[in-house]
TrEMBL record:
GO CC aspect terms: cytoplasm
Region (Disordered) residue spans: 138-220
Gene transcribed to yield this protein: Dtx4
Family: Belongs to the Deltex family.
Alphabetized GO MF terms: ligase activity; ubiquitin protein ligase activity; zinc ion binding
Official protein name in the record: E3 ubiquitin-protein ligase
Organism taxonomic ancestry: Eukaryota, Metazoa, Chordata, Craniata, Vertebrata
Keyword match Translocase: no
Key words, A-Z: Cytoplasm, Ligase, Metal-binding, Notch signaling pathway, Repeat, Transferase, Zinc, Zinc-finger
The keyword Ligase belongs to this UniProt entry's keyword annotation: yes
EC number: 2.3.2.27
Catalytic activity: S-ubiquitinyl-[E2 ubiquitin-conjugating enzyme]-L-cysteine + [acceptor protein]-L-lysine = [E2 ubiquitin-conjugating enzyme]-L-cysteine + N(6)-ubiquitinyl-[acceptor protein]-L-lysine
Pathway participation: Protein modification; protein ubiquitination
Pfam families referenced in this protein's UniProt entry, alphabetically: DTC, WWE, zf-C3HC4
Length: 550
């Protein structure tokens, strides 16, 4: 297995640069450190004396409350303890230190063992850039020679703290390979870099080629973060100036067609060929908006209340299946020479349905009044008995709905309101937030396995619509779909494979607020039109709004 790797730079003023570690308490009572990026975000808010920090902007649905030092799950409201402790500072120098020594090295401590010399074009380029920076004047760190001079060198003052260099682009890790022109001119570059290295080191250091065993070998031990960043930037400028193009390989977590292993192999091969490779981090998943106070939440104009609840609806009694179908059918005395699409037998022959026999003759044929499709009455009654028995009928050929279609959604609650944040692609309006909450329970007679318990994963589920004219229209129709129990159903999850669980029921919702990594977010210019078409397929149109008012 080949996996991509990357190297990250952290500013000395950040949490790892100061040795600050943020941890959360797990279920066993021990402490688990946050990821580096999460810890940096928490520490930045802590230093700015913010009362809390919301981690949804970096893809986590947690809020860190500094007053109580707690982590709150925004969905379940579960709270865990967090703590801030000081640890070893993130390494600022290279090489191996004795075990008794910690980062950073204290003044007067024993020096690290010498690092073996390296003559690859990559190191030669770094050395030449470092030597040029040292020769440029004050404000740059000096290079340490590999061996001490025979004569005792005079004491050198401590170099001044260098000014902060240009910050590397956020979220980008650059992996630079060797360069063929540099390899060809390796000897010349070594010779050219020798005087600069000698003058930058202690006086009296022996001259010689960088790659020679007797020559001095400068290390990167004295480079701090800003110097390393400047080296990377200068190195990239040299590579680009040499005429070799920069080729990006994006989204190494597998969220794009570029497989992580393929991206890693590509980077290795391109580096070996002398090509620079830029590996970019994938964008963050943003599921939730920034925190919203109760005073900022607004009701939706034109829609009464802000919450709907559903309960189990009983099937209409007093009407037999034959009486229900009679409203939607016309008898056909002379059936056409074609097959019934339910039993696949010829319409002129008796029905081929072999299940429980309804109280109707198997050779009777009827035509649906709207779409004019023809079926055995025997087959239609059997299909109705196997469905929701809610007084509605859907043509099995063209899906035309007769009556008011209802579903088998379990009991739950739907909340909806306006929050003062804009969705990507809808910067001119606020956002409608919908919160669905369905608890687990026991399946009823209309469900796949009556009497068996069902699960409800991922609730409450947050969904988002733009607060525009079309967005409010979609919300009104979704309210009708909720009342008719068509938003959710009980079945087998297509993502986890779990059976007897609450699943979406063919009406797509947007569950990402600030990103669109899974396809369930914004911007999506066709979403509102698509969901209107999906609602129409369930028999929910603007005419349904008038029916609900009646």
């Amino acid at each position: 297995t080949i996996r991509p790797v990357r190297r990250s730079y952290y500013d000395p003023s950040s949490a790892p640069g100061k040795g600050v570690v943020w941890e959360w308490e797990n279920d066993s009572g021990t402490w688990t450190p946050y990821d580096m990026d999460v810890g940096i975000t928490i520490q930045r808010a802590y230093e700015k004396q913010h009362p809390w920090v919301d981690l949804s902007a970096i893809g986590f649905c947690y809020v860190i409350d500094f007053a109580t030092m707690g982590q709150i799950n925004r969905q379940t409201q579960r709270k865990r303890r967090v703590r801030r402790r000081l640890d070893m500072v993130y390494p600022l120098v290279s090489g191996t230190l004795p075990k008794s020594q910690s980062w950073p090295a204290s003044p007067g401590a024993a020096a690290a063992p010498p690092v073996p010399a390296c003559t690859c074009p990559q190191c030669l380029l770094v050395m030449s850039v470092k030597a040029a920076a040292a020769a440029a004047g004050p404000g740059t760190s000096t290079l340490q020679p590999r061996k001490a001079a025979p004569a005792k060198p005079p004491a050198t003052p401590k170099p001044p703290v260098p000014a902060a260099g240009p910050k590397a682009p956020d979220g980008v890790a650059a992996v630079r390979g060797s360069l063929k022109p540099l390899a060809v001119q390796g000897g010349r570059r070594q010779a050219a870099s020798t005087p600069a290295l000698s003058s930058a080191g202690a006086s009296g250091s022996p001259p010689g080629g960088v790659g020679s065993g007797k020559g001095s070998r400068a290390s990167l031990g004295t480079l701090n973060r800003s110097h390393l960043q400047r080296l990377a930037i200068a190195q990239s400028r040299v590579l680009i100036a040499s005429g070799v193009p920069t080729v990006p390989v994006k989204n190494l977590t597998g969220s794009s067609p570029v497989n992580p292993a393929l991206a890693g192999i590509t980077g290795i091969l391109m580096s070996a060929a002398g090509l620079p490779v830029c590996l970019t981090r994938p964008p963050k998943l943003v599921l939730h908006p920034p925190p919203v106070s109760k005073s900022e939440i607004q009701s939706i104009p034109g829609i009464s209340h802000s919450c709907r609840k559903t309960t189990k609806k009983q099937a209409k009694k007093g009407k037999t299946p034959e009486e229900v179908l009679k409203k939607y059918l016309q008898k056909v005395r002379h059936p056409p020479d074609e097959d019934c699409t339910i039993c696949m037998e010829c319409l002129s022959a008796p029905s081929g349905y072999k299940g429980p026999q309804p109280a109707i003759k198997p050779d009777l044929v009827g035509k649906l009044v709207k779409c004019s499709h023809v079926f055995h009455l025997h087959c239609l009654v059997a299909m109705y008995n196997n469905g929701n028995k809610d007084g509605s009928l859907q043509c099995p050929t063209c899906k035309t709905i007769y009556g008011v279609k209802t579903g088998t959604q379990p009991p739950g609650k739907m909340e909806y309101h306006i929050i003062p944040h804009a969705l990507p692609g809808h910067a001119d309006c606020k956002t409608i937030r919908i919160i669905y909450n369905i608890p687990p329970g026991v399946q009823g007679p209309e469900h796949p396995n009556p009497g068996k318990s069902f699960t409800a994963r991922g609730f409450p589920r947050h969904c988002y619509l733009p607060d525009s004219e079309k967005g409010r229209k979609v919300l009104k129709l979704l309210l009708v779909a909720w009342d008719r129990r068509l938003i959710f159903a009980i079945g087998t999850s297509s993502t986890t494979g779990e059976s007897d669980t609450v699943i979406w029921n063919e009406i797509h919702h947007k569950t990402e607020f600030g990103s669109n990594l899974t396809g369930h977010g914004y911007p999506d210019i066709n979403y509102l039109d698509n969901v209107l078409a999906e609602l129409a397929a369930q028999g929910i149109t603007e005419e349904s709004l008038a029916q609900e008012k009646d």
